[in-house]
Fold each of these.
Amino acid sequence: MRQHYRREPELGDTPIESLKIPTKSRDELPPVLRALQYIYCTPELKDAIFSLLEKKITMTDIGTPGMSLWEILIIGVVRLTLDANYDRLEHIVNYDELVRGMLGIQKFGGEKKEYGVQTLRDNVYLLDETILKEINELLVEHGHAIKKKDNSEKGETESLAIKIDSYAVESNVHFPTDYNLLWDSVRKSLALTKQILEGHRDIQGWRKIGHWEKTMRNLFEQVRRSSHRGGVKKKTKLKSATRKYIHAAEDLYAKLMMFRGSVNDPMVSWKEWDYYVSMLAKHIDLTSRRILREEVIPHEEKVFSIFEPYTEWISKGKANRQVELGVKVAIATDQDGFILRHVVMLKQQDVDITVSLAKELLAKYSIDSISFDKGFWSKDNFEELQQPDVHIVLPKKGKQTKVEYEREHAPEFKKLRRRHSEVESNINALEHHGVNRCPDRGLIGFRRYVALGVLAYNLHKLGNLLLERDRNQKRAAA
């Protein structure tokens, strides 16, 4: 089992609970470090978080102890707090004294501990979306406890006013066309074939594999230029270039399938190779149908990235960004700005998650109101969400009946609907914590990245509460 944290302090160490966190800095990092310090100094919260991390992260297979759970949590959170890539993260954890103090690394004496980029990447990847969601719930509970104490002193209510909205988190992909996705499939198929050929030099017929790559690249460029240029003969030139491109791709596909049958080595893993060659065949068909036969390709047949196949084409009608490539994420925030829940909406729309998300929140929290925008409306959703003691703000799409008009123009409804716009500020803050474009690979990496971003966001909110309390205590002492 991994250590929770480094247990034996060394000469010159400053205990984590004694670290001085700047109280007036406007940077994102100090509030998050203050919240992490709070976790470390709150035994019941710290033990609960470590017990969750132990479920997922164990000793490495080779028997080495690896990073402590505390280090992994901090490094993952710092990355999303600053929206940093791993190169910048390496610099921060190796040279930022406050972060290193929070990691429990001695400042004086001994050999300086440093982290490599691959070490950081491998350990952060051990975190899991489910565990991060549970940790987030624990943080929100403690944040509410702090606010409850403040609100009780002010005589304010403890019930939550929840706002739910969704936005698009982009995948790290280029803009897709069928012919550039075909080129992606070609180059990946050839690259993987090269790797296999290095261990099977007796296989004939691939001496000019580099020529294949160069030829396909040139044909792709011809199609791309024909597509982008205008002129009266644009369609004729585009079809001519595409026809040559597809014929060469079909010849390459046939050669690759012959290669697949000529290698009988059981040690060769074909899973990745088979995937990219299947994408090659798919995009030969799609390119031929769209350009040569001028068919309209059904949306469900399209793939928007061969590297991140979960990517969706999202059009929310924004003036500055008409199309986004990624996955929609729904968040539920309260009046204090904490994100209570988030949902990665894979192949889902707002209307599909309205009831399930609202009922999950109603079962967990004491709620005064839940507000949505029109995208979440359906008649069934509205009827199913009616609660005697909860204000449901769910505006109707389209024309309203007299009863619906009166409901949506009631003073309480109008007040809560105006306050619903606060969620846009929460989304903007979440995007500043890196959850606007995911650089991690795969759907699992996407889910982990979003969950880490939500955790960093809530730590920032909690840290701001704690820093405000620290400032008040200093003023009272003065």
Amino acid sequence: MSAGIGIAGRAGEDVRSDARVRVEIGGRGLDLVVRSKVEPYYGRAIRAQVGTVLDRLGVRDARVEIDDSGALPFALAARVEAAARRAGAAPAADARLERTAPDPGPTDRRRLRRSRLYLPGDEPKYMPAAGLYRPDGVILDLEDSVHADAKDEARLLVRNALRAIDFRGAERMVRINPLPVGLGDLEAVIPERPDLILVPKVETPDALREVDAAIGRLAGAGGVDGAIWLMPILETALGIENAFAIAGASERVVALTIGLEDYAADLGVPRSADGAESAWARARLVNAARAAGVAAIDSVYGQVDDLDGLARAAAAARRLGFEGMGCVHPRQIGPIHAAFTPSPAELARARAIVAAWEQARARGSGVVSLGSKMVDLPVVRQAERLVQEARRQGWPAEGETPEGA
């Protein structure tokens, strides 16, 4: 690509909700060419937005060509900015959109995280409707789903999405790249106060402390209020060995999760259908998370069309101690929520056990019975945890299930 020319975005028959933008800096004034099926209706708005972005970048003289495939304003602005920066626009200029998304405020440390839906950070078409599927969280991914040559574009898209899209109560997560590339991701997104940062391929507590320090510095410089949480992804044998230390490396850590594809690759073995190669690592991660007082979240289930297999895998993960899973498709959200939501019968039994324990204590007795069965103290403690979780999360009364389950 020659000096003074930048190209970003996509165009073509199979592309939707995106745009291809070519910016050539130079000439006299702004020469703008728009090719779009909706140009008669939105051409004026497109031109105004392009002019605003370039003005904020200090670009006054340029030829700009746009092949529009229905890009929404947040995506068009990101593509124009990426092309202009590639063409040599001022690197420090602030071309952010005006904020239009509601600010839901910081999320709770122990909120429900049963499902987290991955959205490729360089695919704007998936982002606006993601919240309609009611995941507990959405992950705007800057790592594996984004080609190395598109990282700069994806950062701008994710930044704009955080400013423009209402994710309807889903926790707004961003998966950054491994360090040091991930530090550039943080510079782009932390001023928009995402709720949680997923940090991939964490192997040592020091790596997480570096991310923690960067978030604190960037949040302070940007006047960001409210907590920004961390979820380290353990994807190597060394990461699993250091799980407990990683979980305690920062007060921002709310959960540990595992990346099974990379973990199997690190072991030098293929992934199997029964997951035997990762059984020990997953159990160790759960144990480390519990010992550190944070949640354990399982990996994704890659067979999108096998919902029965997903239901079995999610049920097994819950029995192991996990509190949620990743999703690679919206159709996976329902089965995952069903698996990680206590049934009315489970909650009713837990409440009955807690009530029996409280009655026994009121009588001065240490013996707890439910009907004709004696109940051991560890069972009482487990029931108390479930009831406390129900109260904390605002779950409905006995006999009902949580909204969105």
